[in-house]
Design brief:
Elements lengths: L2 H7 L11 H4 L5 H19 L5 H8 L3 H29 L1 H19 L5 H28 L6 H8 L2 H15 L6 H23 L18 H7 L3 H30 L5 H27 L4 H19 L6 H15 L1 H9 L7 H33 L3 H28 L11
Helix pairs in contact: 3-6, 3-7, 3-9, 3-10, 5-6, 5-7, 5-11, 5-17, 6-7, 6-10, 7-17, 8-13, 8-16, 9-13, 11-17, 12-13, 12-14, 12-16, 12-17, 12-18, 13-15, 13-16, 14-15, 14-16, 14-18, 17-18
């Protein structure tokens, strides 16, 4: 065996994922992109572990309905108030450090929360889990950008948009299958172990790599913190965040109440309703995966968002019409999830239209996560208020229809800002 082959054989396993800095700009390391994608999946397990365990937690800790609602919503509160700010920190402290810190914080908080004997300690642990989530999800897209060639970046970021439905649905399904064998405390501890273990894996694989500016359209100059923060507050990025906000609010408004709607209508038992809803969340990944390939065909990203939002609105209205057969309503809910899944990946892919470097991209990615947090925080609460005021689930249909119209309008305005960023067409040179 030659010396070169012996050296390659003796390399640690994570070294197999390394590429030289020379090659980073010219080709995409899909193995590394896959490892980075799992960061989002790992922190999203913290979302999926909750819905199926709420009744057990409420009974064991003696929580009020208000406390139960906070356990769900306070996770999104952190993203709703700090996404842009934390995204702007990624360049100062390093995207890798923030991603690993997010995984570790979420794991430690989940472990501490598993020993909670009161609402206060459990809610405090959820706050820290939410902080870990936002640290990881705002910093990972920049790491993905460093591992992809310009031609593949849109597809990679489209695949990144799958992280939340992937992690959430996986944990929801596991929780349903293991409900009779595991307590909610054991589920919290397993989630903690997975996050802490994966933080170690990510650090070992990526610790010797640095941001490679040549991956982005232009070489970045040092940018002050307040200037990075201001990047996400320009009209284009704000419109993009608004599209994500309305999508997230609509998606959680339907998914959050669908188990209750199915159970109250007699179409499914509570356990079956939860499992059916988990499959709908998983179906969202199909749209996420497709988004990058759709945009690659030179389709306008804002138009893709507008069309998907319109379809979401139409299908959601039909889902809440109880006179329709269950099979049709469930099929429409699946279409709602699949088509809606195109929006997150398309929004992530559009960030490059407003960011010439990772330091400018971080705050915009943070703005997207913040928009999602606001939508997830407000959507279910507003739906509940409207349904109570009207006295029927038609109120949920009205809310989602209105959100879809707003999303379409924001996307059409966004198209003008993206067109301004495109280089002017070059005039043909006359022969002779």
């Amino acid at each position: 065996m030659s010396v070169q082959r012996r050296r390659e054989k003796d390399k640690p396993i994570w070294a197999l994922f390394r590429t030289t800095r020379k090659n980073r700009a010219s080709r995409t390391s899909w193995g590394r992109v896959g490892l980075l994608f799992l960061i989002g999946v790992a922190v999203s397990l913290q979302i999926g572990k909750v819905p199926g365990e709420l009744s057990a937690i409420q009974g064991e800790l003696g929580l009020s309905l208000f406390d139960v609602g906070l356990i769900v919503s306070i996770f999104s509160l952190i993203a709703a108030v700090s996404g842009i700010f934390i995204g702007a920190l990624s360049d100062r402290f390093g995207s890798l450090r923030l991603a690993v810190s997010g995984l570790a914080l979420g794991g430690l908080a989940s472990f501490i929360g598993s020993f909670a004997t009161s609402a206060f300690l459990l809610l405090a642990s959820r706050v820290i889990e939410g902080l870990g989530f936002i640290l990881a999800t705002t910093s990972t897209p920049a790491l993905i950008g460093n591992e992809t060639s310009p031609s593949d970046r849109g597809k990679a970021l489209g695949l990144w948009g799958m992280y939340m439905p992937a992690g959430t649905s996986i944990m929801m399904i596991l929780a349903a299958l293991l409900a009779s064998a595991w307590s909610w405390r054991q589920l919290w501890q397993v989630t903690a172990l997975l996050n802490l273990a994966y933080a170690t894996v990510v650090w070992l694989v990526f610790r010797r790599r640095v941001d490679s500016p040549q991956q982005w359209p232009s070489k970045p100059k040092p940018i002050r913190f307040k200037d990075r923060l201001a990047t996400a507050l320009k009209p284009g990025p704000l419109l993009l965040a608004g599209c994500f906000l309305t999508y997230a609010g609509n998606f959680l408004a339907l998914i959050g109440f669908l188990p209750l709607v199915l159970a109250l209508s007699g179409d499914a038992s509570p356990a079956l309703a939860g499992l059916l809803t988990a499959f709908i969340v998983a179906a969202n990944m199909i749209g996420n995966a497709a988004s990058g390939f759709i945009a690659e065909r030179k389709r306008s990203r804002p138009r893709i968002i507008a069309i998907a939002a319109a379809i979401m609105g139409i299908t959601a209205v039909c889902v809440f019409i109880e006179a329709l057969p269950f099979a049709l309503r469930y099929s429409l809910a699946l279409i709602f999830a699949v088509v809606g899944g195109v929006i997150p990946g398309t929004c992530f892919g559009a960030v490059e239209s407003f960011a010439a470097s990772p330091s400018k991209a971080g705050p915009i990615f943070g703005g997207l996560i913040q928009g999602a947090g606001i939508g997830q925080l407000l959507g279910p609460s507003l739906v509940a208020a409207i349904v109570e005021a009207i006295g029927s689930w038609h109120g949920a249909a009205l809310f989602i229809a209105a959100g879809a119209l707003i999303n379409v309008a924001l996307a059409l305005v966004l198209e003008r800002f993206i067109q301004k960023k495109l280089p002017p067409p070059t005039k043909p040179v006359a022969a002779g």
